[in-house]
């Protein structure tokens, strides 16, 4: 092999090795960030201050550069910040939202503060085909549409778009939607408990309207929860599209294996 080709081949090999090392460190940093994120979100660091980078590296048997990359990932998520003379501290809190019980937001987060609702819109609209099909009403029939900005301790948390059959929705128009979960109101109106809900959870980019209302950066990721709730007798009564600020909420649940 000519000398020039040998040098070229050796150079390519060195570049490949360096790239692999960078990729390996990035993978390790992502794995470490996942482990640290759990501790950050569950109050695992006393006083809200993370250990020194050297101590974290020793605990997880990884390099200081990898630790720094992991902390950079958490900093980009808005969970931690580095303060001169103090170190890395927790600066944000995510609130737990369970997926294994059918509860309204105020019921779910009652231990974390007060949930308030800003009713941005409420009134009858003609049901689009996908809404009519899921609520089992004729296409074009009027349903109650409610748009609410929901806050926890004054901070914007979710934007809820709700569709309810009009025979139930008419009674809701005179109810206290600003301080009461729709779930509780539906149970009071119908005289029976809610039974079950079908849910879909996915990440979507915040559109201009949602970003403005939620005071989130335009295009940032939000958690979209689509939920169709039924009464105990099986009737669908509440179709919701809920956009949660992903930096303020975490979803969890208990799953059991059955074959």
What does this structure look like?
With 259 residues, the chain is of the alpha+beta class. It contains eight helices and ten strands. The protein has helices at residues 3-41, 53-60, 64-76, 105-108, 129-135, 166-172, 182-190, 208-214, and strands at 80-83, 87-90, 95-98, 115-126, 142-152, 155-165, 194-205, 221-231, 236-245, 249-252. It has a six-stranded antiparallel beta sheet. A two-stranded antiparallel ribbon has the order 1-2. Strand 1 (80-83) and strand 2 form a beta hairpin. The N and C termini lie far apart (60 Å). The mean pLDDT is 88.
Q: Main sheet: which strands, in order across?
A: 4-5-6-9-8-7
Structural class: alpha+beta
Count the helices. How many?
8
Beta-strand percent range: 25-35%
Radius of gyration: 25 Å
Q: Which percent bin holds the helix content?
A: 25-40%
Sheet with the most strands? Answer: 6 strands, antiparallel
Quote the average pLDDT.
88
Shape: elongated
- Please report the distance between the alpha carbons of the first and last residues: 60 Å
Report the uncertain regions: none
Number of strands: 10
The ordered string of helix (H) and strand (E) elements is HHHEEEHEHEEHHEHEEE
């Amino acid at each position: 092999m000519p000398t020039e080709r040998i040098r070229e081949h050796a150079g390519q090999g060195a570049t490949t090795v360096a790239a692999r090392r960078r990729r390996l460190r990035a993978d390790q940093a992502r794995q470490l960030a996942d482990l640290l994120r759990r501790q950050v979100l569950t109050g695992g660091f006393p006083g809200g201050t993370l250990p020194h980078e050297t101590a974290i590296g020793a605990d997880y048997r990884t390099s200081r550069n990898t630790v720094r990359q992991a902390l950079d990932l958490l900093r980009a998520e808005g969970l931690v910040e580095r303060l001169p003379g103090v170190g890395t501290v927790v600066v944000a809190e995510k609130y737990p939202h369970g997926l294994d019980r059918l509860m309204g937001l105020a019921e779910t987060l009652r231990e974390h503060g007060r949930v308030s609702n800003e009713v941005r819109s409420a009134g009858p609209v003609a049901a689009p085909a996908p809404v009519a099909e899921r609520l089992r009403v004729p296409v074009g029939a009027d349903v109650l549409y409610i748009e609410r900005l929901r806050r926890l301790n004054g901070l914007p948390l979710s934007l809820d778009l709700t569709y309810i059959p009009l025979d139930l929705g008419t009674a809701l128009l005179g109810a206290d939607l600003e301080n009461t979960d729709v779930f509780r109101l539906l149970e009071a109106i119908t005289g029976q408990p809610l039974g079950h809900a079908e849910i879909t959870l996915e990440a979507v980019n915040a559109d201009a309207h949602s970003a403005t209302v939620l005071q989130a950066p335009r295009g940032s990721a939000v958690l979209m929860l689509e939920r169709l709730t039924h009464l105990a007798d099986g009737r669908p009564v509440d179709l919701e599209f809920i956009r949660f600020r992903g930096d303020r909420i975490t979803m969890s649940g208990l799953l059991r294996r059955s074959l």
